[in-house]
Amino acid sequence: MTLFLGASADRLLASQPSTELHPVSAWLSSEAVRLRTVEPESGLADLQPLKQIVGDAQIVAFGEPTHGNREIFRLKHRIFEFLVEEKGFDVFALEAPLPESFDLNEYVLTGKGDPAQALAGITMWAWDTEEVLSTIEWMRRYNQDPANTRKLKFYGFDMQAPERAARVTLDYLAKVDSPLAEAAQEELGSLAIPFSDPESFGWRPDIESEGDVSALEAVRLVVGELDSRRHDYIAHTGRKEWELARRHAQVLASFVEASAEAGRDWDRVRDRTMAENLRWIVDREGNDTKVFVWAHNSHVADTTIARWGDVDTAGRHLRRMFGEDLLIIGTLFDRGEFAALDASSKELRSFVVDSAPEDTVEAKFAAAGLGLAMIDLRSIPSKGPVAEWFSEERRTRHSGGGYNEAAPERSFMEYVLPEAFDVLAFFRSTTAVKAVNRADYGAFPTLAAPENLDFEGCRDGESPKGWIAWSKLSRAGFQVATTAETVFSGSCSAMIRRPPGHYAGEVAGSLVQRVDAAPYRGKKIRLRAVARAEIPANAGLSFLRLKVERAPSIDVHSLPDLIFDSLDEQRVTSREWQSYRIVADVPESAAVISYGLFLAGLGTVWLDDVEVDSIEP
């Protein structure tokens, strides 16, 4: 049995006999071995005992209790470094969308692109951090060394974003089967359009038609044809391109399936698909590949989660697939700081928690005097009080991308630890991860009434007052500002521009205003505006958009509850100024109304003379 411990933490209880401790804490204390630091690139000598723990495992899945603990992220980086240098691991797999993550792999292998931009392009705030960025940059430096002949590769294995998956699938069908491509475009083409709502930090809105029966039938037909006609398609494009298109089609199919029936089976489909994607990665890279998996505890754990509707986790699926070739490491922290989206304000901020409650696993580690520790749960005694304690469900800290400070009791998860994890890592205290740009994840204002609708009194190149020009869009190559270069009336208009270039992710630029729905309830709202576009052929699209939302949920993982969304119906296509009009009902349940201009792809679009008024029903 092996346990790693911070160099100073073992002195905390040096004067206290272990007989005074709970049997579990005494057992933990007796097995302590020092771990010097969490910092990467600081030497590997103290990590040598990990060789025995990892053994011949082909996959090491390393969890985290929240997505916001800096020290946990740093140790993950350090252990990945160790696994590469000492155990021959060559694949890094992150809980991020598989299709968009190929942009990061391109950087890791070739140096092409901007890794910070590519991180922004995979949507999830949790990975848009200095800690993950430093891991990616280390991978690139490793690959640049000619002495390292086996190069590291970066993969995502999630399925929460359909845009790249849809675009790659449809583009491939256009090459090999134009009739199928045309049929698929009609049902699935909208899934390739990025909406990138800033108030949802880039996540796609919940669009009911994208999970309806016709969408399910269409995507299943595509996957079926890719399989049944594989030999014809491979003869046309080669095996590698077919295999990549087939996986993108499967990711798209999983997204559509998970979205069906209002997302009733979202968690079940998501975790199953994450495991299937990891299986595909191993098959693609070959039997001698070794994969380091970075995800949340609740995904890597070998368990069934009741609160998700008795969902088998990705870890449970992986255990069935890989057996003892899989090593699962769960992580715990007792107290300190972490970052998360606030359930009330929806902004990214830091939270501080005191020592964990006495009935938690963390409390037993803390009572043992541990500071930074890992223990192999496979060496728990076969009988006695320690075995009995570990045989029952125990509470651990648990929050994902968000945290509700008003209901901290919700931020725990129960596991039978030796069944869920092979190894536990413990951190006595943590600090918060550092976002690449914290301003990208701030709160967005809701105005009492529309303002600055004509963009007058502007300074050329500045963000329009009262409008949301999301800071993260600049990292994706968009310029969103007021301009005097072309106007419909007056001296200024608003502009979204994205010039040709190498861009990561699937992102739409936007200029949006949000207002309180109260004055419009029980009436119709009418949005009118003039706009024009200069978009290269087949390089992008622009649209004016109106949304009506109900009050936001306190669950930060839930998308806005939309009453009405015009999506891309009002497309801006003319190089000349044209008028546009959208009308929507505003029921008594409405809370927020938003409207604005969107640009997906390349080009420049302008907006002027916006009008927002109510119409009696």
How many beta-strand runs?
Answer: 25
Radius of gyration (CA) equals 26 Å
Query: Outline, from the CA principal axes?
Result: globular
Considering the protein shown, what is the CATH homologous superfamily of the largest domain? EreA-like (biosynthetic domain)
User: How far is the first residue's CA from the last residue's CA?
Assistant: 73 Å
CATH class (first level) name of the largest domain: Alpha Beta
Averaging pLDDT over every residue, what do you get? 93
Feature tags:
single chain; 617 residues; alpha/beta; de novo design (two linked rop proteins); Jelly Rolls; eleven-stranded mixed β-sheet; 18 helices; globular
Give a verbal description of the structure.
- InterPro entries: Emycin_Estase (IPR007815), Hydrolase/PRTase-associated (IPR052036).
- It holds the Pfam family Erythro_esteras.
- This is Erythromycin esterase family protein.
- It comes from Tsuneonella litorea.
- With 617 residues, this protein is an alpha/beta fold.
- The protein folds into three domains: 228 residues, EreA/ChaN-like  fold (3-Layer(aba) Sandwich); 108 residues, de novo design (two linked rop proteins), CATH 1.20.1440; 172 residues, Galactose-binding domain-like (Jelly Rolls).
- The protein is built from 18 helices and 25 strands.
- The strands form five sheets. Strands 1, 2, 3, 4, 5, 6, 9, 10, 11, 13 and 15 form an eleven-stranded mixed sheet that branches.
- Strand 9 and strand 10 form a beta hairpin.
- It is globular and about 80 Å long.
- The N terminus is likely disordered.
